Amino acid sequence: MQSSKGDGQAAAVPVVNMRRSRMAGCRQAAWLLYHVGVDASALLFADEVDMEGLIMDQRASLVVVGQDVLRSNGGLSLHTPRQ
Questions:
Q1: Per-residue pLDDT of the chain (83 residues; tens, 9 = 90+)
Q2: How much is the pTM?
Q3: Where are the beta strands (DSSP E) in 1-83?
Q4: Where are the domains positioned within the chain?
């Protein structure tokens, strides 16, 4: 997620593309975060951000990295993880 600050600069904010409640089921990701010292409670998850509202207000842009796919939702492309 990238959002404009008041001074004209942009801030990049990574968003984990899953619901926070699913993190417990991703043992490998949880293991990796733990061992590299990342506190999972400090991460921002997709269900905690109104990405559609931010994009529609032109306050954010969305970049998808990896093997995930985009699907259309009423003219807005939303990120949907593969299951």
A1: 444 555 667 777 888 888 899 888 989 988 998 999 999 888 999 889 888 888 888 888 776 666 555 555 555 444 455 44
A2: 0.58
A3: 2-4, 10-12, 60-61, 69-73, 76-80
A4: 2-80
Q: Which pairing describes strands 69-73 and 76-80: parallel, antiparallel, or unpaired?
A: antiparallel
Enter the DSSP assignment of 16: B
CB atoms within 10 A of CB 60: 20
Which tokens in the block code for residue 29? Answer: 């990701």
Burial class of 35 by CB neighbour count within 10 A (0 to 12, 13 to 18, 19+): exposed
CA dihedral 75, 21, 83, 65 (to 10 degrees): 60
Q: 2: which residues sit within 8 A by CB, 6+ positions away?
A: 10, 11, 12, 13, 60, 61, 63
